[in-house]
Amino acid sequence: MIPGLNIQVKGTNRGTQTDANGTYSINVPASGATLVFSFVGMGRREVVVGNQSVIDVQMKNDASQLSEVVVTGYGQNNRREFAGSVASISPAKIKDQPIASFDQLLQGQAPGVLVIANSGQPGSAASIRVRGSGSVNGSNTPLYIVDGIQIEAAAFQTINPQDIESLTVLKDAEATAIYGSRGANGVVVIQTRRGKAGKTRVSYDGQYGRSYFPKNRLELMNSNEKIDYELRRGGTDLEKLSADEITKLRAIDTDWQKEIFQVGTTQQHQLSATGGSESVLFYVSGNLFSQTGTVKGTDLNRYTGRINLESNSGPLRFGLNSTVGYSIQNFQTEANTGIASPLNAIRWANPYEKPYNADGSYTQLRSGQPNPVRELKETSRQFNELKTVANIFAEYDLSFLKGLSVRTNWGVDYSNQEQQIYNSRFGQAGTGSAVKGRQGRLSRDFYKNTRFTGTTSINYSNTFGDHSVRIGLYNELVRFKYGNFGFTGYGLSGILQNEAGITQNNANQIPDTRGDGIDNALLSYFTTATYGFKNRYYLNLNARRDGSSRFGSAYRFANFGSIGASWVITDEPFMQGLTSGVLNNLRLKASYGSVGNQEGIGSFASLAIFQARGSRTSQTISSYDGNSTVILTQLENPDLRWEQKNTFNAGIEFGLFSKRITGGVEVYNSVTKNLFLNDQLSRTTGFNSINRNVGELQNRGIEIGLNTINVQTGDFSWETNINFTLNRNKILKLTPTTPERGIISGTVINKVGYPINSNWLVEYVGADPQTGAQQFRKLNGELTTTYDPNDAQIFGPREAPYFGGFTNTLRFKGLELSALFTYAFGNNIYNNDRSNVEIPDYYADNVSRALLTEWQKPGDITNIPNPNLPHQTAITHFLEKGDFMRLRNLTLSYSLPSALMRQAKMSSARIFFQGQNVLTFTKFQGFDPEITGGQLTGAQYPALRTFMVGLGLGF
Amino acid sequence: MKRFISILSLVFGLGVTACDDRLNLNPQQSVDAATALASAQDIQSALVGAYGVSAGFLGGGLADAELYGTNLNLLPELLASDNYIGWRGTFQGYREVSSRQMLATNSEAQRTWITAYQVINIANSVLESLDKVTDAGQKQAFEGEAHFLRGIMYFELVRLFALPWGASAGNSQPGVPILLRATRTQEQAAETQARNTVAEVYTLVLDDLKKASTQLPEDNGLRADKYSALGFLSRVYLQQSDYANALATANQIIKSGNFRLNANVTTVFRSKNTAESIFEIQENTQNNPGTSNDGLTTFYASIPANGSAVGRGDVQVLNAFVEQYDLTDARRTALFYIGVKGGGTRYYTGKWTDFGTNIPVIRLSEILLTRAEANLRLGSAVGASPAEDLNAVRERAGLKPIANPTVEDVLRERQLELAFEGLRIHDLKRTRQSAGTFAWNDPKLVLPIPKREIDANNKLVQNQGY
User: How far apart are CA A547 and CA A151, in angstroms?
Assistant: First the structure.
């Protein structure tokens, strides 16, 4: 018996699933109906109904992916007929991971999908790149679709991963064609759980665990080292202290990390019920997720509820999927260089200082650096979100023509957010110069996001002998509106530490207000068609016309399309002899097509725009001498148009040795044309740059996925799943004004022939043994101690070109042990965090232990230069390899035997133990090598190391 | 089939709710430039924009840190730091300027360049939109204000980014590119331009400021007026050693009777728009160039406040300079203090002590000293005798008068009176004195043309030594 097996009436969208006992019922048309049974990992069977009223099917464990259903959000395709490139991720594999933002769970699960966690802050989103970055100035973030409607990317803390039924990543032009105007960066399609007919099935899942801070690989000086270092260099406060006082300081050796880190806890409880009859199906769930981070004062509490309802009456299917969530996130700033960020302050605070005086008051650090503990405790940052994602759909089978149906789906992603930042008058941030009156500050900002998606389609699907066709005509509208309002008040000097305590009517403490808004729309008309012949030759065609409000009227609309073909070789008669023993499955597919991108540029990027300027201190709409002002901030750009990504994809899928080995290899070549690029202008024009469609960017790669059943004997099995991706990114064409030199911004360059955002630094070759000056290599190879930015060269890409994951799963009876390793390598990261503690000028604060080996006298051979000479940081000394491999997830679970379950009147029970980020192998000098953007700026909040126990019960 | 078509139209009627009109959206939070400079009110808004402070997005005005908010004061001071001030801060851009070891990528040179040209672009836009102004008086005032903005920006640019006036015969050394039209289209934005000569830039500056001084009203609220233009004009003439015109201009300002010295040397820095002030940048707690990473107070101040400090204390005043003041000089007793930074051993200037107070750019003492110097050099006594003008400044500071002053006396007084106000390197250059070991015309005392500019405009020639 298989609960959750999909059953569909062939050629229609009508379907159901088996209940907990593996039974189902479904209404079929009077004659000629065929039922399609499918289940992920079990393949697919078709049974002609005829006169049967009960159809029992035996599903085979079919590790081949060939028979899987491909969920694209607009309907389901059989994988065999689908020429596009997709990766399906089994929710069962990821749903237990103790992470609030589901995008982080995709790491290492699918070839071609690079997931970098970036932060361990509870609720934070990951950075995801599908087959590399295809845009420089536009967005590189994939599109997220939940039940057919677009949801805000990188804002998932209020979405419950446990409600996910299927997760599919669409990668090439063919697969993303139906999202053409938004699909250039790949599409993550999520379907939430549908009701399952039959006896109502109630499940409880709960887990509890603890999180720990990882090892710090950037070592700083301890008290003795730092005191000796300062005394040797001279010039700091310590000079003035007596020998006695110095001795006392030496006795202090504060571990600042311990002062602000804690053991985090995570718990999650989910209660769900599913059931119904064939005419009404329901799924309801409630979930509570609570996580405290490893930095004090960071946590996430989330409450979500979901109702999915579906009604089937005759030819009409009608349904509603809706979720409401509320999350409260307390957070700390990260990824910045601000001195008041506790995660920076722990680096820079000297170990011979203490957080508290004997009387319990905060200490004032000698160097003037903020006391990390004080800043942590006297500042609170909170982000609340109320989010609802809901859609209704109606589908109608038209009786006069078999296989013809119409469908409309309308939905909204709505969120209301509130962010509060409070700096009390007892912290340095609340008494700093940026705080008017220096008596505390309270900021509150409200945000409202609304995105409607409406899709209406007419579909036809039928089979005529050897020929099968499926055609859909679609119209789609996506409308996005965003607005925010905020204020900052000062002078919280009284008892009330909220809005009521803000000082009013004081010319030196004028509250600031601010507001902004975004408005854009997309309109699309498209068609998709699939033709199949003899169940083994398939042709896919897509054509579409997309309009975006972001462009001027002349270039608003653009056409995109794709063509693909799939050939199931093993179904050829001439292959029959071969397929039995060795080769069970062999399929070839290829596609070529184009999709557009317009995300990431301003809503009114084509217009010349005057803006009311903000003031530097408070970001308010501002004035000069009491007069309101506007300033021209954007040059007109009537020629701005769609960025277009053309992708060629070819793949082979195979199954060998009775499907003990299955897998696939895909190669792709995608070229983004009309690339949005900031064409640098001479600033004598009054403008910096203009966003033009001038470049071309290529991503080429190969993806390998392999699944092997290494051992399968009796009750024991060992399965391995491996995926690997190589992505080569290269700029083919740049703006005509800067072809050979490239576009340089700081330590990053975009240059023809190199990956986007390559590191642009001067090569460092150690300290000059004679003077201790930093030595650099000039372009002609000579060494020099004179730094010249013209000597900068390209040093590697910032985005990892090689990445993937592998999972080993061992099963014995009810026991299962599974280990997921993920890895990424080949990228270089500029370690600004390290640079900050190696700059010798900053030695009044704590510095890197590396400075113990600095140049002191002629003849010293070292990498660390003479601290008294000029010090450059845009050099390769601070560039490090970003390679890492980590044991991302280790799970040991035990499912209780069903005999026992029956006695307990339960359908299932499972207990598990799991570890997240158990081991990390890297040489990167920081807390965590998972960093996006190629630079570790500072204040890093690393991924959590979490250990959980959990329980799943089914009734 | 008929039925099919009707269902099809029903379905698409539902979906295609409104056709392409759905994509016609207009910005709500900003103004399309096509309609932005259509009335006198709009033009005034844009003009005021040229004074303001911006953050977060492109664009800045006179009050911003790139211009008078910080750099047009601080860079001329740091370039002449010898025996005067010491840079104690961590910002690499300023450190390079202070040590005269600037790289072509110097961040301060870069941001001052772009912002000055943004103001010039606003001025040019206003000049091109004047036909929208119907009131003749208002039109003339706007025109004068635009010429003022453009004139002073070119003056600041040519002084910082080019070898000084007089460095070559005929001043044919490269100045900065002159743009006299607004950039409105992509084609205009793509045009690049070579550097004009220093002589050409000065000609433009004089032309703009002369126009401004006749077109601007006597009183223009708290923005530039006729006397602001005359004040800058006197600076330009002085920089060219055109003492006769410097004298005439300075005399015109003083003779107007609109300005008088405050009784106290601190008043002009503590209060707003005092009687002494001729051109002043308006600031308040909401509009200022910065309180933690930018702004004169941020860099110059180091005052204890609530357990921390006002200012970063980055610009230390060297003891040697403080000691040049007489012990009883009010400018020593009231305008220096020992800062928090440096453990109570360093002097800091008391001129910039509050983030929200105004920044006087031109004040009467300067104009008095200009008239005194010019009269001395010309052997005249137009308006007043050199001694009268010099002693007015000295006596206000509580010093004894000098009966028969020399040019050196006036120049010395100028250094003491106008210290930390952004005049020092320019005065050294025009009087051909060295800044430490750097001769007045040393290329090391000239900022680099930003590398980013050279990259984007291959017609630009880099300054010597970069």
Answer: 19
Helix H or strand E encompassing A436: none
Q: pLDDT for A897-945, tens place per residue? A: 878 877 878 888 889 999 989 999 999 999 888 888 889 999 899 888 8
* Structural contact between residues B384 and B371, judged by C-beta atoms closer than 8 angstroms: yes
Helix H or strand E encompassing A633: strand A631-634
Residue with tokens 């040590």: B99
The 10s digit of each residue's pLDDT in A193-202 is: 888 888 888 9
Minimum-distance CB partner of A433 among B56, B90, B310: B310
Angle formed at CA A94 by CA A89 and CA A100, multiple of 5 degrees: 120
Distance of alpha carbon A904 from alpha carbon A896, whole angstroms: 11
Q: Are A11 and A530 in contact (CB under 8 A)?
A: no
What mean pLDDT value characterizes chain A? 86
Question: Nearest CA of chain A to the CA of B178: how many Å?
Answer: 8
DSSP H stretches of helix in A875-937: 898-903
CA proximity to A458, closest of A399, A403, A515:
A403
Interface of B with A in 52-111 (CB under 8 A): 52-59, 61, 63-65, 90, 99, 101, 103-105
Whether A257 has a pLDDT exceeding 60, the answer reads yes
Structural Rg of chain A based on CA atoms: 30
Q: Which of residues 366-425 of B touch A (CB under 8 A)?
A: none
- CA separation for the pair B351, B349 (Å, rounded): 6
| A239: contact with B, CB 8 A cutoff | no
pLDDT digits (tens, 9 = 90+) for B403-417: 999 999 999 999 999
Residues B216-227 have a mean pLDDT of: 93
Q: Which one of A457, A527, A557, A613 would you mutate to disrupt binding with B, by most B Cβ within 10 Å of its Cβ?
A: A613
For residue A607, the distance in angstroms to the closest alpha carbon of chain B comes to 6
Tokens representing B151?
A: 């004139």
- How far apart, in Å, are the Cα atoms of A354 and each of A246, A248, A371, A596? 14, 12, 9, 56
Angle at A532 between CA A526 and CA A533, to 5 degrees: 155
Residue range B91-146, pLDDT digits in tens: 889 999 999 999 998 999 999 999 999 999 999 999 999 999 999 999 999 999 99
Structure tokens at B334: 């009231």
Q: φ and ψ at B284, to 5 degrees? A: -150, -175
Residue identified by tokens 């991971």 is A97
Contact yes or no for B46 and A632 at CB 8 A: yes
CA atoms lying within 13 Å on the CB side of residue A761: 26
What pLDDT is stored for residue A1 in this prediction?
A: 46
Per the structure block, which two tokens stand in for B28? 């709500």
User: Which tokens is A702 given?
Assistant: 């190969």
pLDDT tens for B309-340 read 888 899 999 999 999 999 999 999 999 999 98
Separation of CA A379 from chain center: 28
Q: Which of residues 634-673 of A touch B (CB under 8 A)?
A: 635-637, 639
| Spatial distance between the Cα atoms of A198 and A212, rounded to a whole number of angstroms | 43
Closest CA to A585 of A659, A535, A660, A665: A659
Beta strands A935-936 and A828-831 are: parallel
Buried b (16+ CB within 10 A) or exposed e, A938-948: bbbbbbbbbbb
Structure tokens at B3: 């039925």
B36 contact residues in A (CB cutoff 8 A): 610, 630, 632
Nearest neighbour of A609 by CB, restricted to B27, B190, B306? B27
What is the pTM (predicted TM-score) of this model?
Answer: 0.85
Model ipTM value: 0.87
Annotate B124-161 with b (16+ C-beta within 10 A) or e (fewer). Answer: bbbbebbebbeeeeebbbbbbbbbbbbbbbbbbbbbbb
Contact (Cβ atoms closer than 8 angstroms) between residue B28 and residue A519: yes
